[in-house]
Amino acid sequence: MLELLSHDDVTEIRLNRPPVNALNPALVRELSDTIARQTAEGARALVLSGRPGLFSAGLDVPELLDLDEEGMRSFWKDLFGLLERIAASPVPIVTALTGHSPAGGTVIALYADYRIQAEGDFRLGLNEVQVGLVVPPVIHQALVRLIGPYAAERHLVAGEMIPASRALEIGLIDEIVPAEQVVEKAVAWCRRHLALPRRAMQTTRALCRADLVGSFEDGKALDVDGFVRGWFSDETQATMRALVERLKKNA
Amino acid sequence: MLELLSHDDVTEIRLNRPPVNALNPALVRELSDTIARQTAEGARALVLSGRPGLFSAGLDVPELLDLDEEGMRSFWKDLFGLLERIAASPVPIVTALTGHSPAGGTVIALYADYRIQAEGDFRLGLNEVQVGLVVPPVIHQALVRLIGPYAAERHLVAGEMIPASRALEIGLIDEIVPAEQVVEKAVAWCRRHLALPRRAMQTTRALCRADLVGSFEDGKALDVDGFVRGWFSDETQATMRALVERLKKNA
Amino acid sequence: MLELLSHDDVTEIRLNRPPVNALNPALVRELSDTIARQTAEGARALVLSGRPGLFSAGLDVPELLDLDEEGMRSFWKDLFGLLERIAASPVPIVTALTGHSPAGGTVIALYADYRIQAEGDFRLGLNEVQVGLVVPPVIHQALVRLIGPYAAERHLVAGEMIPASRALEIGLIDEIVPAEQVVEKAVAWCRRHLALPRRAMQTTRALCRADLVGSFEDGKALDVDGFVRGWFSDETQATMRALVERLKKNA
Questions:
Q1: Do B159 and C205 touch (CB under 8 A)?
Q2: A153 contact residues in B (CB cutoff 8 A)
């Protein structure tokens, strides 16, 4: 589900779970473990990338709909574990958004140090409301940190999927580059930062990201119970099952 | 003082207190009561609009100058009650700024979900300092939430009245549309949001607006005493009485 | 080290410590004392300016490298004292950035009410990381207040020195004007604000700046120990000594 590519001391972790890099329990755990292992083994920076045209389609709704409450709670905790690991990573992490990146794909990117998007007719955004979901407070906070409280309100309440150009305008991503350069630019960003005096760069990075990391310490901000309750609500189940039906028909 | 217009499940509340929709105690109470009643009676969204060319000129200074301390304190509490009701509304509220909207007119708009401004040579802004007033902390916080702490500092300290185009640039309003479309666009905004899965939209809206609603729980942020003290200070009384004289001469 | 120029009730304090207005212990103390004395003696606003082409090159690294731990701790407390005095000044302070203004030069400007930059090929920014330093939390907070948490992260972690035009884009400065007008525009800004009703302007100013002033009350945000420890770390000492060698060779 993951490919590792070495660019000297920068490791690229490429999501490779066909067809759409959907986030199921196994992928979330493997991605989290791989990030931990790579940084433990000396990678000085990480690039998270996807397949050409698609970073990740977000949650694997069809598979997740088969989980019972216990399974869903466990998956959701693992997802928070992954996001916290990205937020608190001892080394910089850049997301190379190689294509579309809605919902869960955007969520992962929020917690990275930097977001580079491939040029093209690609869309991203936290469109959870459109499928009947409510993002937990901790993800709301990460979005507020990136684009401000009011822009976050408008974006989340509308459940917007937006073109990459609009995402750049509101600050949801940092750069748009030709698709074939997205990984290379991400690696170059890492190298520029690794060339800085190391203690100063790392300590400053920790200072600036302390609020993002700290948000995971507040159980209320995670609100696992609230999310699981919402997931099994009639409205959400009906909306997601209708979505899955549509996906099957189009397949 | 208010007209109600029904656009299916969206109710438009049109301020209609000639000549300038000035906010006196009666209008503030009636607007607050009407919002409560409409949402209780099933309106799924509200649009607050004004007269062509003028949303509201803000506080009715001539009438308020006749109030004693007790009367002023009571008015100010009612005004906070109105603002909190808008902030905490269970349904979305859009302000259709049909024209000029200085001071109190802008304040009301701050607490709505969305602000659409009529195109034209219209001005708005929190120009309280120009008339010798200091906005209370809770209003400062609402402005910070919308445009950021530094832009809020510059705007409030200068007591700026700004053209709508500048208000759009700094994020004080969301859109400028031809005057004859301002209500229609506000209704359309509501309909787009009402078409979303309801529980998800409402819960996300509550999450994103919790800080705005919460600001009213802090008595220090309301600072009714501070405002009333300021209102009756020599500088403020002199500035406002000079203003009223000028208005009379121009009338 | 300082020249005082009177523009009626606005006093200009011009940094004049050749060759580069570097911040050594004596200049920091004198600037702090002068600000206190001028406001006590009735200046209604202050303009801080520098030499043509250079506001300040920041810390006087060669001189500071000769200080022992006690001396460095004392200098750093004095610098915080200066910044707090600017933040909490009873009268508005505008920085007239007459030219380059990296690191410490930018830091001083962060705490002023307003920043006007001379047009020209000038650079500024918090490039501390480039020389092995970590800005303390209180300075990070002041930058966040001005440009937002994410822009602050990117700027600080990279230790960026940026052209004035870029500083304007991200909100680090407010205006760029022809070099010969920078002081005059700063004085005019003060006069416009002094023409406002005084109590209202001053009270609003205090309300809007309370967060900036309050940040100095938190010992953890100052983190004098952390800075001093970092200053004497091997990496930082080596980076700064190499820098001083380069400066000597170029002199």
A1: no
A2: 113, 205, 208-209
DSSP code of residue C23: B
DSSP for residue A145: H
> According to the model, what pLDDT value does residue B249 have?
87
What separation in angstroms does the CA of C48 have from each of A27, B34, C87, C92? Answer: 57, 53, 13, 11
Rg (CA), chain B: 17
Residues in C touching A198 (Cβ below 8 Å): 235
H/E/C letters for each residue in C142-174? Answer: HHHHHHCHHHHHHHHHHCCCEEHHHHHHHCCCC
Q: Is there a contact between C197 and B239 if contact means CB atoms under 8 Å apart?
A: yes
> Which own/partner contact pairs does C29-38 have at CB distance under 8 Å and 24+ positions apart?
C29/C78, C30/C1, C30/C2, C31/C1, C31/C2, C31/C82, C32/C78, C32/C81, C32/C82, C32/C85, C34/C2, C34/C4, C35/C82, C35/C85, C35/C86, C35/C89, C35/C93, C36/C85, C38/C4, C38/C11, C38/C13
pLDDT tens column, A56-72? 999 999 999 999 999 99
| Contact check, Cβ <8 Å, B203/A154 | no
Close Cβ partners of A86 (under 8 Å, ≥ 6 residues apart):
A35, A93, A108, A111, A112
The SS3 of residue B163 is strand
Q: How much is the pTM?
A: 0.97
**Which domains occur in chain A, in start order?**
2-195+217-250 (3.90.226.10)
